[in-house]
Amino acid sequence: DGDHIYEQVEKDFFNAVAHTVDNGYILLHDTYPPSEDYVREEGCGTVFRLRQQIEQDARFDCITLPVGCAISVGLTIVRIKPKIRAYYNE
Question: Residues 54, 10: contact at Cβ < 8 Å?
Answer without folding.
Answer: no
